[in-house]
TrEMBL record:
InterPro entries: FAS1-like_DH_region, HotDog_dom_sf, Mitochondrial_HTD2. Residues 72-131 form the FAS1-like dehydratase domain. This is Acyl-CoA dehydrogenase. It comes from Caballeronia humi. GO terms for molecular function: (3R)-hydroxyacyl-[acyl-carrier-protein] dehydratase activity. Pfam families: FAS1_DH_region (PF13452). SUPFAM superfamilies: Thioesterase/thiol ester dehydrase-isomerase.
Protein backbone atom coordinates (compact mmCIF):
# COMPACT_ATOMS: atom_id res chain seq x y z
CA UNK A 1 0.00 0.00 0.00
CA UNK A 2 1.35 3.40 -0.89
CA UNK A 3 1.27 6.55 1.22
CA UNK A 4 -0.15 9.87 0.11
CA UNK A 5 2.00 13.00 0.27
CA UNK A 6 -0.37 14.59 2.79
CA UNK A 7 -0.43 11.52 5.08
CA UNK A 8 3.39 11.47 5.16
CA UNK A 9 4.03 15.07 6.23
CA UNK A 10 4.66 15.32 9.96
CA UNK A 11 5.67 11.65 10.38
CA UNK A 12 8.46 11.38 12.99
CA UNK A 13 11.09 9.01 14.29
CA UNK A 14 13.87 9.26 16.88
CA UNK A 15 17.20 7.50 17.20
CA UNK A 16 19.85 7.49 19.92
CA UNK A 17 23.58 6.90 19.63
CA UNK A 18 26.88 7.78 21.31
CA UNK A 19 29.73 9.70 19.70
CA UNK A 20 32.04 6.73 20.17
CA UNK A 21 35.79 7.24 20.28
CA UNK A 22 36.27 3.99 18.33
CA UNK A 23 34.13 5.28 15.45
CA UNK A 24 36.07 8.57 15.32
CA UNK A 25 39.36 6.66 15.45
CA UNK A 26 38.25 4.38 12.59
CA UNK A 27 37.23 7.33 10.38
CA UNK A 28 40.43 9.18 11.25
CA UNK A 29 42.46 6.14 10.14
CA UNK A 30 40.38 5.75 6.97
CA UNK A 31 41.08 9.38 6.07
CA UNK A 32 44.79 8.85 6.91
CA UNK A 33 44.81 11.61 9.54
CA UNK A 34 47.77 11.91 11.92
CA UNK A 35 45.63 12.69 14.95
CA UNK A 36 42.74 10.88 16.54
CA UNK A 37 39.95 12.74 18.38
CA UNK A 38 39.99 11.84 22.09
CA UNK A 39 37.26 11.72 24.74
CA UNK A 40 35.82 15.25 25.11
CA UNK A 41 37.29 16.54 21.84
CA UNK A 42 34.89 18.11 19.34
CA UNK A 43 33.81 15.80 16.54
CA UNK A 44 34.91 17.21 13.15
CA UNK A 45 32.10 18.69 11.07
CA UNK A 46 30.05 16.19 9.05
CA UNK A 47 31.41 13.21 10.98
CA UNK A 48 27.96 12.90 12.59
CA UNK A 49 26.96 11.13 9.37
CA UNK A 50 28.61 7.93 10.64
CA UNK A 51 26.15 7.68 13.52
CA UNK A 52 22.49 6.65 13.66
CA UNK A 53 23.00 3.70 11.31
CA UNK A 54 19.67 1.94 10.78
CA UNK A 55 19.59 -1.60 12.16
CA UNK A 56 17.15 -3.37 9.87
CA UNK A 57 16.61 -7.07 9.32
CA UNK A 58 17.86 -8.25 5.93
CA UNK A 59 14.34 -9.24 4.90
CA UNK A 60 13.25 -5.59 5.33
CA UNK A 61 15.91 -4.14 3.00
CA UNK A 62 14.52 -2.84 -0.30
CA UNK A 63 16.04 -3.47 -3.75
CA UNK A 64 17.88 -0.11 -3.50
CA UNK A 65 19.80 -1.33 -0.43
CA UNK A 66 17.98 0.94 2.05
CA UNK A 67 15.30 0.05 4.61
CA UNK A 68 11.96 -0.52 2.91
CA UNK A 69 9.80 2.56 2.55
CA UNK A 70 6.52 2.91 4.40
CA UNK A 71 7.51 3.02 8.06
CA UNK A 72 9.23 6.41 8.28
CA UNK A 73 10.09 7.38 4.71
CA UNK A 74 6.89 7.26 2.69
CA UNK A 75 6.14 4.64 0.06
CA UNK A 76 4.92 6.80 -2.81
CA UNK A 77 4.87 3.98 -5.36
CA UNK A 78 8.16 5.18 -6.89
CA UNK A 79 10.91 2.57 -6.41
CA UNK A 80 14.11 4.55 -7.03
CA UNK A 81 15.27 7.03 -4.42
CA UNK A 82 18.31 9.25 -4.48
CA UNK A 83 19.89 12.05 -2.49
CA UNK A 84 18.96 15.37 -4.11
CA UNK A 85 20.49 17.89 -1.70
CA UNK A 86 20.50 19.21 1.82
CA UNK A 87 21.16 22.03 4.22
CA UNK A 88 23.09 22.05 7.51
CA UNK A 89 23.30 24.44 10.47
CA UNK A 90 25.91 23.73 13.14
CA UNK A 91 25.10 25.30 16.50
CA UNK A 92 27.46 23.58 18.93
CA UNK A 93 30.00 20.80 18.48
CA UNK A 94 29.27 17.20 19.29
CA UNK A 95 32.02 15.80 21.50
CA UNK A 96 33.60 12.38 21.68
CA UNK A 97 31.71 10.49 24.38
CA UNK A 98 28.48 12.51 24.06
CA UNK A 99 25.18 10.62 24.00
CA UNK A 100 23.22 12.02 21.05
CA UNK A 101 19.60 11.94 19.89
CA UNK A 102 18.32 12.57 16.39
CA UNK A 103 14.68 13.58 16.01
CA UNK A 104 13.54 13.35 12.39
CA UNK A 105 10.37 14.66 10.75
CA UNK A 106 8.98 14.54 7.21
CA UNK A 107 8.73 18.28 6.53
CA UNK A 108 7.41 18.25 2.97
CA UNK A 109 6.40 15.93 0.13
CA UNK A 110 5.71 17.19 -3.39
CA UNK A 111 4.94 15.18 -6.52
CA UNK A 112 5.90 16.46 -9.98
CA UNK A 113 6.14 15.31 -13.56
CA UNK A 114 9.60 15.52 -15.18
CA UNK A 115 11.17 14.58 -18.52
CA UNK A 116 11.80 11.07 -17.22
CA UNK A 117 8.35 10.64 -15.67
CA UNK A 118 6.80 11.04 -12.23
CA UNK A 119 9.02 12.38 -9.43
CA UNK A 120 8.45 12.96 -5.74
CA UNK A 121 10.58 15.16 -3.51
CA UNK A 122 10.67 14.39 0.21
CA UNK A 123 12.27 16.82 2.67
CA UNK A 124 13.34 15.31 5.98
CA UNK A 125 14.33 17.59 8.87
CA UNK A 126 16.73 16.20 11.47
CA UNK A 127 17.51 17.86 14.82
CA UNK A 128 20.55 16.37 16.55
CA UNK A 129 20.87 17.06 20.25
CA UNK A 130 23.33 16.34 22.98
CA UNK A 131 21.78 16.58 26.43
CA UNK A 132 19.16 19.30 25.98
CA UNK A 133 21.25 21.31 23.50
CA UNK A 134 20.46 21.52 19.79
CA UNK A 135 23.80 20.83 18.09
CA UNK A 136 22.92 20.35 14.41
CA UNK A 137 19.91 21.10 12.23
CA UNK A 138 19.94 19.20 8.97
CA UNK A 139 17.54 18.88 6.06
CA UNK A 140 17.76 16.13 3.44
CA UNK A 141 16.04 16.35 0.09
CA UNK A 142 15.33 12.90 -1.33
CA UNK A 143 13.96 12.36 -4.83
CA UNK A 144 11.87 9.30 -5.67
CA UNK A 145 11.65 8.25 -9.31
CA UNK A 146 9.94 5.70 -11.51
CA UNK A 147 11.93 2.77 -12.86
CA UNK A 148 13.75 3.55 -16.10
CA UNK A 149 11.98 2.13 -19.14
CA UNK A 150 13.92 -0.59 -20.97
CA UNK A 151 15.87 0.96 -23.85
CA UNK A 152 15.31 4.53 -22.63
CA UNK A 153 18.31 6.77 -23.38
CA UNK A 154 20.47 7.92 -20.49
CA UNK A 155 20.15 11.62 -19.76
CA UNK A 156 23.50 13.36 -19.84
CA UNK A 157 24.21 16.90 -18.76
Amino acid sequence: MTDTPASSIGRTESAADVVAAASAEALSATLDYDTVPLEGDPLPLLWHWMFFKPMVRQSLIAADGHPAKGSFLPDLGLPRRMWAGGRLRFHTPLRIGDPIIRDSRIADVSVKEGRSGKLAFVTVKHDIRTSDTLAIEEEHDIVYRELALPGAPLHRR
